[in-house]
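Usage

Read records sequentially. Each one opens with the input sequence:
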Amino acid sequence: MREGENGELTQPILIEMFRGSEHEGVLNSAQKALLDLDLAQETAESEIAMCLLTLRIQRTNDELEVLKKTVGQDPRDRSKQLMLQAKLQELDQMKRMRREGRFLQS
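and closes with the structure output:
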């Protein structure tokens, strides 16, 4: 994830990250909804960051399910077991960040 000069994820960077992707429309809708709520910029940015982290958690869960199936097909494959372990740690870290209110990795 690209960040601004101070390590923060800025709105222009976020928009550029999703430009042309299948998620561009979702981001545009989220931005409009946040504008309609008339939230302070910091609050809106936190909400967007929380949504992005939640999407990353969902994607990682999906990746874990696929890895679990491949490990189940060949439980002796050490590389797949290591990949599974790394994904589990990544998921745990993201969930901890969400619980602690740390939505962006520095």
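Summary fields computed downstream for this record:
- The chain is about 75% helix and 0% strand.
- Residues 41-73 form the longest helix (33 residues).
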